[in-house]
Specification:
This protein has helices at 3-13, 18-26, 31-38, 62-76, 80-85, 97-110, 124-133, 166-177, 189-194, 204-215, 238-246, 274-281, and strands at 49-52, 87-91, 115-117, 138-142, 151-157, 198-200, 226-231, 251-255, 289-293, 301-304, 310-313. The chain is α/β, with parallel strands linked by helices and 321 residues long.
């Protein structure tokens, strides 16, 4: 089928979705836009898939998320033990992240796969820790990492809490390619919970992760106090990073409060703009104060020295067990 055929098929197959139809009809006269949205499926690899938020095969939307999840479910269902061990799902502050996480959970539940869903924003390292701690078969994070705010993504992690291998990505892709866009089914949330298929991730997971992180400190009893100014860049790091600082001896910090937002207002590129934001925060500094920030997905935390040079420090590893 050509891109025009795919476009017409979506208008036909999702006719009951008024919002989707309205969006697709709005581009009816834009041949270039139709081609870009429908000339291929959104690609899936070791980093999962990511794309611009919009309707279409080559975009991130509820239908591409459901299809990818059905493929993941089919991949896991080859082993009954994997279905029982289940999948842990986390999400960041991007637009549609919570909705995509819920869609992922309910499609998995409809296939009899057990799900642990975080009830609040959580960074990637905590997802990785939860996968290992709960002995899950896989993890999914709804995030697009460093991409601009109009993007979102779907990243899959293995039972070791690490990004899936090329072999696993190819097997999941094979499963996804067999799924028609309109085929995936969802189980209602109330029914999923009543059946014991959908559960929240235990709150203790976050505390255990923070304890494990603190146990990795090189100099846990530093004599000189360290003064920090911290910014979460509107992302997932606010709660875990500030909780960690409060548990560390000798750490005094001020948080430049930036509540999680889906458009990263001061940041053109969520990860790569850390340096510019740190440089701006330097103007707030007192003597011997170290500004620091975490990217919105909070895969690491870094600090900037008053000289203007930047140093990044990984506080925790996704493979932390």
């Amino acid at each position: 089928m050509g891109y025009r055929d795919n476009y017409q098929a979506w208008l036909r197959d999702f006719a009951a979705d008024a919002q989707a139809v309205a969006e697709l009809k709005a581009i009816e006269g834009d041949e270039k836009e139709i081609e870009d949205r429908f000339y291929r499926n959104l690609s899936f690899g070791t980093a999962g898939m990511r794309g611009v938020l919009a309707m279409g095969m080559n975009r991130m939307n509820v239908y591409t998320v459901r299809r990818a999840t059905q493929g993941l479910s089919d991949f896991l269902s080859a082993n009954e033990e994997s279905r029982r061990r289940g999948v842990v799902i986390a999400y960041d502050s991007r637009r549609m992240s919570r909705e995509f996480a819920e869609e992922t959970a309910l499609v998995l539940c409809a296939n009899g796969v057990h799900v642990f869903l975080f009830d609040a924003l959580r960074p990637v390292p905590i997802l990785s820790y939860a996968v290992r701690h709960l002995h899950a078969a896989a993890g999914v994070v709804i995030t697009a990492s460093h991409n601009p705010a109009q993007y979102n993504g779907y990243k899959v992690y293995g039972s070791d809490g690490c990004q899936i291998t090329q072999e696993a990505a190819e097997s999941i892709t094979d499963c996804i390619e067999k799924v028609p866009y309109g085929a995936p089914q969802s189980m209602p949330e109330a029914e999923s919970r009543a059946a014991g298929l959908l559960r929240d991730v235990p709150e203790e997971i976050v505390d255990r992760f923070l304890e494990k992180t603190l146990s990795c400190r090189v100099a846990p009893e530093a004599e000189a106090p360290l003064h920090l100014i911290y910014t979460p860049l509107h992302g997932t790091g606010l709660e875990p990073v500030t909780k960690t600082f409060r548990r560390m001896k000798g750490i005094q910090f001020t948080c430049v409060t930036e509540p999680p937002m889906d458009i990263f207002p001061p940041v053109q590129s969520p990860t790569r703009s850390c340096g510019r934001l740190c440089a701006a925060v330097l103007s707030w500094r007192k003597k011997k104060t170290r500004p620091c920030s975490s990217p919105p997905t909070r895969t690491a935390t870094g600090w900037a020295w008053p000289s203007g040079k930047r140093t990044g420090a990984t506080l925790c590893s996704p493979a932390t067990k």
